[in-house]
C-alpha cells in the first residue's frame, strides 16, 4: 500500500480509519528505513509482522516473483513445492554470482539486498561483541570447517610455495580436516600443561617456524573457543609472532562470539600483531540451523578476496536465518542473551564443583576458558576401566546432550595422523574428566536437570562398582576356602 492507494481507500472506508492504518504501516516502514540507512542491528527487536513485511517486500523485487515474468533460462527461481517456496519466503535465487558470493544478481535485487544487509548487520554484531576494529565480514553458507578451508585456499594464491600450517593442537576433527582438504600438511604443536590448563606452547610454535622456514608456512591456525581443560590460544603472542615472521594468521573462533573474553583476545591480537581472518559459526553463536559461518577480518581487500574464492552462487538460507534472528532479537536482546550466558556459566561452575566434591572428584581449575568446564573422574576410573565411558552412554540415554566424557589413552587416526589421548587435547592428560559448557541460550533449568541426572548416574555407577567388588571378593573367598578344605 502506497500513499496513492491509501487515498483511494478513503473513498471506501472512513478516512480517519484509513489514516490510522496508514500511520501503523509507516511505523513498520520507519524501522525498515532505519535499517537501510544505517545497516546496523536495530537496538530493539522487531515484531514478526515487521520482519515478514520486510521479507515480502524483498521477495517481490526478485524476478521469479514478477507478475509478468517470462523465464527462458536454466535458473529462473522455479520451485515445484509451494511449501518450499513459503519456507524461503519466495527468495529463491540465492546470493552472489558465479564469480563472487558477494556480487549483485541482476535478476534478484531483493536477494542481493538481503545479502548485503545481512553482512552489514553481522559486522555490527561482531563489533558490539568486542572486536571493535573489524573491517569486513560476510556470511558464507558453510559451517566452520569448510569456511576455514576457503580461507586456506585463498592464502594459497598469496603464498604458492607454502606447504605447512602450524596448528596448536585442539581435538576437533573438522578444523584438522579443513587443513587436509585444502591440500596442506598440518604441523601439530602439542599444548603445555599449566596447572590443570592446556595452553599454547609458544616456544614450540616458534621453533617450528624456524625449522620449516617462514616462506614454507602458509599460516598459523589458532583457536579461541574450545573444550576445557584446553583454553583459548595465546592470541596476542601468536599474532606478534606472525607479524615478526610475516606469516598469515587464521583464527578458529567457532563459538567465540558469545564470549567477551574470546572476542577481546581477537581484538588485542589484531592490535599488537597480525590476524588475517577469524571464522565463527552461525548456529553456535546465534541459535539458527546448522550450515553457515561468518568470515571476518581487519583487511577488507583480503576478506573480499576470500569471498571471490567461493565458486558459484550460494544458498541464501543461512543469511536469511541469521538476519531474521538478529532483527527479532535486536542488539539489546542479543546482549541480554550474552549476559545471561555469563551468569549461568558461574552457576554451572558452582553446581559442578558441589557435585564433584560430593563424589570425591574436583572441578578442574581452568579460569582462562570462559565457556567450557571440566570435572575430574579419577574415582570413577578407579572403580572400573569401563566406568568412565559407561557414564557417557548413561547420560546420553537419559537425554543429557552436550556433556562429553573423556577417558584416558584413546587413540584416533585422522587422515593419516594419529592422535594419542584423543579428545583430551593432550597425549597424556593426568586424569579422565567430564565436560559441560555454558553456551548461548542455556537456562538454569538445563543446568539443574543436568546436575540431577549426573548425580544419579554417578551414584548408580558407584553402587554397581561396589557390588562388583563385593562379588569378586566373595568369589576369591570361596576359591580359597575350597583350596584348603580337607573334609
Automatic annotation (TrEMBL):
Q: Where located?
A: Cytoplasm
Q: Where does substrate bind?
A: 97-98, 105, 313
Where does it primarily localize? cytoplasm
**UniProt modified residues of type N6-(pyridoxal phosphate)lysine:** 284
What does the entry list as the binding residues for tRNA?
A: 271, 398, 463
UniProt-annotated binding residues for pyridoxal 5'-phosphate:
75
Biological role stated in the UniProt entry: Converts O-phosphoseryl-tRNA(Sec) to selenocysteinyl-tRNA(Sec) required for selenoprotein biosynthesis.
Q: What is this protein called?
A: O-phosphoseryl-tRNA(Sec) selenium transferase
Specify the species. Sparus aurata (Gilthead sea bream)
The lineage is: Eukaryota, Metazoa, Chordata, Craniata, Vertebrata
